[in-house]
Amino acid sequence: MQSDQSLVKKFENIQLVLLINLCILSIIIFFLYPSVFNYYFQYYSLIILIAIVGLPHGFFDYSIAKRLFSSTTNWLTLFTIGYIVVSLVYFMAWNYIPLISLVLFLALAIYHFGMEELMHKKYSEMSISDILILGSIPVIFPIIFHTNEVFIIFGQIISKELDIIEINKSFSLIYFFLVIFKFYSNGIVRFLPYLFLIPSYIILPPLISFILYFCFHHSLKHYIISIYEEKLIPDIFTMKSFLITIIIASVIFTAFVVGMLVKFSSYTIDIIIVKYTFILLACLTLPHLMLNIFYESKK
Asked: How far apart are alpha carbons 110 and 67 in whole angstroms?
């Protein structure tokens, strides 16, 4: 019987090999057959992989909440209501102050991604500069190297044409050295995936590099830690049945919401996909981040 830590290591190695191969394969395909990554391929790949891999990892929040609040009467109802209320308040903000909501989403995503990269440390030991620099890599690199494409996507999300910001070369150089320094100071071996992710950010279209990072790095790592280290699978489920359940639930929810938007909104399918994906992620990231910070602080 393998120990929990050996299982974590085993599946982290499998996840790393998968990520590396997907990055290399994507870059090779992009150079040989760039037309494969056409506009609609990117958007359909985004919605499919977010629904199957990305969104389901948030279901572990219920197990975290049980550990934190199970001594409270009706904790499940109260937690669910609180989670939904926080998400709905943020969703309303997207309707009234979309640009501010987008900036807040990017800040939340950066903080969340940075925390995940430093999970080998206690939350109290995480440096804010480490969190922000490491967490900003999936956001800043695509902006530096694919500025126009990224701002077009931002504009689609908030239904507003944004002025393209020219990225200063000095900023890019300073940022790159800060990233290298943070890798080195936190143990450069831990950041081996970025040897392949960073070329993906530089070369590939932003949505493709986002899929590689969010689905095959961030989300899969979260699955591994949640299952084998934190043991967050509910007792009534086997690992297989739980994963099947949350993936099916995510796919059905995604299909239903996108279907309703196609039927009742005036947006084209590509705009619906990008709005659904990023606004939903934003609305779920806020309570997810709040819960995980609270959980880490209580360990």
From this structure: 26
